[in-house]
Write a structure and sequence with these properties.
Blueprint lengths: L2 H9 L19 H14 L4 H13 L5 H36 L11
């Protein structure tokens, strides 16, 4: 991920401003990496930056989500689970198609019919 992207997420309110070193450089703690992974995954799952900000705010508060935030999370979770099921079916189909290609051809006289 680029520095420009990380700074954009800071400006968008998705990342808190990190502590700074004595010389003024940003000093990102390790948990920022997990948050960045979540943000990227949430975007891939179709959440908008505003929705991601709302979900992160709920997580940061330490409270159980309720109201619109809980519904958003439940809706997106169903969508992700549906997409995962689709991906598993696609993977299984591709594996089945790949199997014959992995089996070496036997010479004509060695084939069992």
């Amino acid at each position: 991920m680029t520095t420009k992207t990380v700074r954009f997420y800071e400006q968008a309110g998705l990342l808190p401003e990190p502590p700074r070193t004595p010389s003024g450089y940003r000093d990102y703690p390790p948990e920022f990496a997990d948050r960045l992974v979540f943000i990227r995954g949430a975007q891939a799952a179709g959440l908008t930056l505003a929705e991601i900000r709302d979900v992160l705010a709920v997580g940061d508060s330490g409270q159980t989500p309720h109201g619109p935030a809980a519904e958003l999370i439940a809706t997106r979770l169903r969508a992700v689970e549906s997409r995962l099921a689709d991906l598993v079916r696609t993977r299984d189909t591709l594996r089945a198609l790949a199997r014959p290609a992995e089996t070496p051809e036997l010479p004509e006289g060695d084939r069992v019919t």
